[in-house]
Amino acid sequence: MWRVVSRPLTGTHRMQRTWSDGRPTSAITAQIAKANDRLTSFERLEIYNRMYWFRVLDSLYDDCPGLRGVLGDRKFMRLAEAYLVKYPSRSFTLRNLPSRLAKFIREEPQFTHPHTALCLDLAHFEWARVEVFDTAARPLFTVDDLLDADPAKLRLNLQPYLQLLQLDYPVDDYVLEVKKREAELLRGDASNAPSELRSSVTVRLARPRPARTFVAVHRMAGTIYFKRLDPAAYKILTAIRAGKTLEQALSVGVPRAKQPRADWAAKIQGWFANWMELGWFCRAE
Fold first, then answer.
1. Exposure string over 109-148, b if 16+ CB within 10 A, otherwise e
2. For the segment 137-148, what is each residue's pLDDT rounded down to a tens digit?
3. In what order do the strands lie in the sheet with 223-228?
4. Max alpha carbon distance in the chain (Å)?
5. Phi, psi torsion values for 260, nearest 5 degrees
6. What is the mean pLDDT of the chain?
7. Of 141, 148, 134, nearest to 285 (Cα)?
8. Which of 10-24, 79-93, 135-149, 203-217 has the lowest mean pLDDT?
9. How far are the Cα atoms of 84, 153, 156, 262 from residue 99, in angstroms, in the given order?
């Protein structure tokens, strides 16, 4: 039943009439479902086959606005279909559907050429948004937990939902712009905007140029936010996540540079105050 339902559709979005071993698909469906006075067994299972594919493709479409913006709808759907053939859903929830999309793009770059590097960043970023949305949160680490702490021994913990990304493109700004354009389209639909405008809006959106970018994807009160990070701040946070002590994390992040250490002290104090306010630190389990 699962093999029938999850088998890719034809180019006209119908169930394939020939099975993988050359037999008619109708011979397979007859073993699974009975015909009734309105539909053959093939037609009955075709309904589920089409429903499955329309639902998983629709879910990926919603989860990947940035990829759609770069590739355009037609090329994105070719990518999505090929991805789901190679990596079909193995979870009870659609939430996990894009989890292997970046892996697929690395393995099959022909579907994203000539924008594969940009699409890889987008796949990582858009999966991070999914993970941030519903990954668990732990009790907050507070100022009181710092009392009498020795920086040489203190190990902080980051919230499990916090995602830290090192990217080659500023895809955070790009995704926000795509979503803003889509919101404009929805308003346009409500006022009967021309279909030509609806189909061409993402094409006019300039693709981002390469630029090393560090981003934290986090949430507050159920809403997802993106926050740009200084390279040193990113190094400190990733060192903390790797289990380094606070002293070790600071030594990793703060460059041995020309800037006076007093300037770094003020900057780092500001970062930690902001991260505490955002609730990024949690107590150990």
1. eebbeebeebbbbbbbbbbbbbbbeeeeebeebeeeeeee
2. 999 998 777 777
3. 163-167, 213-220, 223-228
4. 84
5. -55, 145
6. 89
7. 141
8. 135-149
9. 11, 36, 28, 43
Q: What is the pLDDT of residues 168-202, one digit of tens each?
A: 999 999 999 998 888 877 665 554 444 444 444 44
Q: Can you give the pLDDT at residue 258?
A: 55
C-alpha dihedral (182, 183, 186, 187), degrees to nearest 10? -140
Per-residue pLDDT tens over the stretch 40-59: 999 999 999 999 999 999 99
Structure tokens at 92: 């009870």
CA distance linking residue 173 with residue 234, whole number of Å: 18
Rounded (5°) CA angle 96-118-56: 25
pLDDT higher than threshold 60 for residue 217: yes
Neighbours of 21 (CB within 10 A): 6
Name all domains of the chain by residue range, CATH numbers in brackets. Answer: 1-61 (no CATH), 137-170+208-285 (3.90.930.50)
Contacts of 245 (CB under 8 A, 6+ apart): 151, 152, 153, 154, 155
User: Tokens 């990926």, residue?
Assistant: 60
